[in-house]
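Backbone-to-sequence.
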């Protein structure tokens, strides 16, 4: 882990497009501002963890539905085609 010491209004650059600025330092914490390109997602860790867990659950649910969809789409043995 890389550790920085920064004062108010000082920044840290991550790559060429992400800037982290110290906005305020107080007793209960540090307020940071993050400037990043629109295609870069920026979340608090607890929100990020929640998103990852929900995505994992959705992917697992999708895997269980694929065989069902194949069964529903496949022609049934012994069935006749419908006529209009």
């Amino acid at each position: 882990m890389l550790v920085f010491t920064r004062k108010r209004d000082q920044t840290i650059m991550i790559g060429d497009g992400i800037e982290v600025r110290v906005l305020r330092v107080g007793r209960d914490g540090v307020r940071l501002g993050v400037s990043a390109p629109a295609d870069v997602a920026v979340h608090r860790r607890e929100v990020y963890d929640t998103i990852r867990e929900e995505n994992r659950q959705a992917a697992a649910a999708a895997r269980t539905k694929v065989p069902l969809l194949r069964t529903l789409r496949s022609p049934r043995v012994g069935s006749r085609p419908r006529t209009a």
